[in-house]
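A further point concerns the way the authors explain their paired sequence and structure data. Each protein is reduced to its one-letter sequence and a matching series of backbone shape codes. An entry of this sort, consisting of the sequence and the corresponding backbone structure tokens, reads as follows:
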Amino acid sequence: MSENNHQSEQWGSRLGFILAAMGMAVGTGNIWRFPRIVGSNQGGTFLIAYTICNLLWVVPLLMTEMGMGKSTRLGAIGAFRDFAGKKRTWFGGWITLVCTAITGYYAVVFAYAIRYFVYALQGALKPGFDEQALWNGFIGNPKQMIFFQCIAIFLTGIVIYRGVKKGLEAVGKIAIPLLFVSLIVAAGWSLMQPGATVGLKFLFVPNFKAFASSKVWLNALTQSAWSAGAGWAMMLTYSNYFKKNEDVVVNSFMITFGDAMGATVAAMAVLPAVFALSATQADAMQALEGGNVGLTFIYLAKLFSDIPGGQIIAIFFFFALSLAALTSIIPQTEVIVRNLVNAGYDRKKATIMVMSGIFVLGLPSAYSADILNNQDFVWGIGLLVCGLFFAMAVYKFGVNRFRVEILNPGSDMKIGKYYNFCITLFPVLFSLVVGWWLWQAITWHPTDWWNPFLVDSFGTVVAQIFITLVVFYFMNDKLSKWITAPSYMEDGKFLASAKEER
């Protein structure tokens, strides 16, 4: 087989893949994004909604991605072309665009983590420092932002260039254990602070009236997809490197469970710290409801400054957070690189092209936190459209056939009709949650809901998503011809060579 067909590179071990996949899922999405999303969406109510969304959306979607990637051995564009038919090639192109858009601003979040690691090394997180001024001074300095963005891009490019075993797998084995240890230490100390129990109660005790809020359910669904990497085509791409007996079903549950555990521990570190370090409970609630992108950095940095030996803990934590950001951005970048490799580009050239593009795409988010918030909001909803596209590919193939022929063979845990039910439910769940949100979103900005230049308006979501969908729809034929790598499938049917290996 040629390199394009993915057989020259494989995961060295199942543990290596799981840790790399956990690195994809357990990263800044859990530590930077999850605490501020759960904090601004009713705490315990959100946690329950998030768990339900993981079971109904994330687990079956990860199974679908891995099944498609393992079956075709191609990136997103080629996988949709050969699995769901040439007319649906543009699905894979648009999903790649969503991943690219997220990666652009994610590199900026990676830059946040690196900067705070450097702050910790410099001793800036010392008792009595002004945590808000430190944060504002950083994000308000474009030269600093771009400098650390460059470092983030450079580190990602090195790992991608090194490939699977020496790059993706090697980093995951170091970063994830270190990150979990650091999170547990931070959470343990945060919970011992006076007033921290109020934060714990906020996190785990639901407000049942809030279940009627479309905002809670929309954010729960987008956070579950965002955090676990469901719908980005990352697991589709990683599964290109599977051995033929890799267990798709068990892997999907393990990744989802590990991601949720990492997110909960991160919230246990951040939210109690917010309540413990705020002057009043009202101040804490105001900080949480504001959805500040710097919430984790501001409050954990302050927490570490008050801990005996806190500088050492801060150094290890922000180093681990930087590694976690790296292990999360790597598969996002690999999604884009893999499509270029499938189109015949050399990996080295593809990596340079992609990293340069991501740098340029992330510049607006580096300059403005509002732009970063806007992109995070829009493409979080875009991920739900991606999930719908994956479900449509399975409908074309046959839901029960997919479960029987692709998911269950070689699995230690045979998946039953649960998968059929969830995939069939995708359009209903998508329509209810997004439709409900669209209906209520207009009330957030009654007079200028149509304005595409507002951070979280109806208009900005519709404009960006609709325009890109139309562009990729008309690019379908070009995308179909652009991918030249051989596949194991053609229009949903296994080729002879694939049947022999399977």
Remarks:
- Residues 89-122 form the longest helix (34 residues).
- The domain at 3-483 is CATH 1.10.4160.10 (Hydantoin permease).
- The mean pLDDT is 86.
